Amino acid sequence: MHINVTDEECKRCGECCIKGGPVLHTPDRVLVVNGTLSPADLLTIRRGEPGLDPRTNRVVLLENELIKIRGVNKIGACKFFDSQMHACSIYGTRPVECKLLKCWDTRELESIFMKDLLQRKDLIPAGAALFELIENHDKVFDIKKITEALSGFPGPGSWNFSVIEKVVREERRFRQKVMKDLSFKEADMDFFFGRSLEEVFAVSGP
Ligand code: SF4
C-alpha cells in the first residue's frame, strides 16, 4: 500500500478519489448527524462479506461491518468527486481517511486501517424499531453463515448457486417489503441493510 514518490505534496490528480469513497470512522459520525452525509450517500459492507484488503490485494471475509461513501455506480469514483473541477465537493468536511491520505506517505492512513470503524449501531438508536429490523435482517440473512455454506469460496465461478437462490429470493422479498412499508429508496437500503445478497453473490434473479 505504501507508494514511493518523490514529490511530497498533493497534486490534485484525483487518483485517490477515483479509486472509490473512504471508509468512515467514529470521528466521521458528526458528518452523518449534521446531514453532510445522508443514508443515500453511504454503503454498508456487512460482517462476513468478501472484500479486497488493499494492503495485500487479496479478497478476505470482513471481520467487522464498515460504512463507506458510495461510489458512482457504487464502486466507481467517490460520489463527491467533481470530475469537472477535479476536486472534492465536500472538501471542508471530508472524512478522516481523506484528510490522512497522502499518496506519497500512506503510513497515517494505514495506522487507522479497520480501526475505530463507524457502524450502523453508532447512528441508529438501539431499541428503535428500525434497528431491530436491521438486527433481524443480519441474523436471518447472515452473510458469514451463507458464505460458509457455499462450497469453493471465493469466486463466483465456484459458488453453489442452488444453495443460495432461495435465500437470495427471500432477501429480495424482505427488501421490497421494507421499501414499500417505510418508503425507503434503494440507495437508503444499501446503508440500512447493506448490499443485497443478490449483489454480493452476483446472482441474477430467477
Ligand atoms: S470525500 Fe472528497 S476527498 Fe474523500 S474520496 Fe470523496 S471526493 Fe475524495
Structural features, described:
The protein has 206 residues and is of the alpha+beta class. The protein has helices spanning 15-18, 29-33, 96-100, 107-111, 129-140, 143-149, 161-182, 186-192, 197-200; strands at 42-45, 50-53, 58-61, 66-69, 81-82, 87-88. The chain has two domains: 15-111, no CATH class; 124-200. Strands 1-4 form a two-stranded antiparallel sheet. β5 (81-82) and β6 form a beta hairpin. The N and C termini lie far apart (40 Å). The mean pLDDT is 86. Iron/sulfur cluster binds next to loops.
Strand ordering within the main sheet: 1-4
What is the CA-based Rg, rounded? Answer: 18 Å
Say what oligomer this is. Answer: single chain
Number of distinct helices: 9
- Whole-number average pLDDT? 86
What compounds are bound to the protein? iron/sulfur cluster
Which percent bin holds the helix content? 25-40%
Amino-to-carboxy terminus distance: 40 Å
Main sheet specs: 2 strands, antiparallel
Q: Tell the overall outline.
A: globular
- Secondary structure class reads alpha+beta
What are the defining features of this structure?
single chain; 206 residues; alpha+beta; 2 domains; two-stranded antiparallel ribbon; 6 strands; binds iron/sulfur cluster
Sum this structure up briefly.
The protein is of the alpha+beta class. It has helices at residues 15-18, 29-33, 96-100, 107-111, 129-140, 143-149, 161-182, 186-192, 197-200, and strands at residues 42-45, 50-53, 58-61, 66-69, 81-82, 87-88.
Question: What's the arrangement of secondary structure elements?
Answer:
Layout lengths: L14 H4 L10 H5 L8 E4 L4 E4 L4 E4 L4 E4 L11 E2 L4 E2 L7 H5 L6 H5 L17 H12 L2 H7 L11 H22 L3 H7 L4 H4 L6
Antiparallel strand pairs: 1-4, 2-3, 5-6
